[in-house]
Amino acid sequence: MRERLKVRRIVRVCVGIAAVLVASATTANAAIVETFSTAQSPFPGGATNQGVISFNYQDGVLFPPQRGSYYVSEESRGSGDRSWFTFDLRSSCTATDVTLQLVRGSEFGKGDLAGGDYTIHEVTTPPEVIYATPGPFPYDPYAVFNDLGDGPVFGGGGWPLDGAPSDVLSSRLNAAGVAAFNAARGDFFTLGMTGGRGTYIDPGLPPERNTIFGVSDPAKLVVTCALPSKKADCKNGGWRNYSVFKNQGDCVGFVATGGKNPPAKKPG
């Protein structure tokens, strides 16, 4: 009789351990994705939180910022376009993966470019400065232009000549970019973009024909959220670290069911 009781206890313990392991594995495989857009929480003066500043290197002329559209151009050909994208992270989760999505748009002077690339940069200029009231610059415009393309690189990508204007180009931010995203949680987050070298069919063509994009479609950030793996992660206010749970019980229920009980809040 005692031996049977021991066997039953061992079986119950093993079943319990197996259930915990299965729940942990399922929770680890669950994914919650949030999407942020430059069309969310627009600053005064525009419909989207994105734009471009252009500089003619040959003449030394800096043009006023153009709000709403973004461009990419190869800067060594006499002019340069540096774009920015600002996202509202005041309700964002902690991210494990962040991808910037851009719409390719049309190329100006088709036949000049055979393809090109772009890089994504850190921006330290506060958004309230970038989105200051249009008119004479209330700040150093050259400093802002430089900031959009001189900071640490967070990622990049490229485009082929034969791509469609509606193509979506996705660029995952590197570890430094993800860390910067998480550091900006609770506030606004701005990324800069510059054009790299393209492969030119006719290098003798005027520099103004080397621009691609010119897009007004809102840029997006697609974010994979960090998730709790054990009930302890939810306790003592820990559930607030994930932004997708309504309360501690909601978080615990998610872990206990291996992610089958979804968070009460809908991801953005």
Describe the structure.
The protein folds into 2 domains: 34-225, Jelly Rolls; 228-268, no CATH class. The chain contains 5 helices and 14 strands. Strands 2, 3, 4, 6, 9, 10 and 12 form a 7-stranded antiparallel sheet that branches. The radius of gyration is 24 Å and the shape is elongated. The protein is an alpha+beta fold. The longest helix has 28 residues, at 2-29. Helices cover 22% and strands 30% of the residues.
Labels describing this entry:
single chain, 268 residues, alpha+beta, Jelly Rolls, 2 domains, 7-stranded antiparallel β-sheet, 4-stranded antiparallel β-sheet, 5 helices
CATH topology of the largest domain: Jelly Rolls
CATH architecture designation of the largest domain: Sandwich
Q: Helix count, per DSSP?
A: 5
- Please identify the structural class as seen in this structure: alpha+beta
**Number of domains in the coordinates?**
2
Helix percentage range: 10-25%
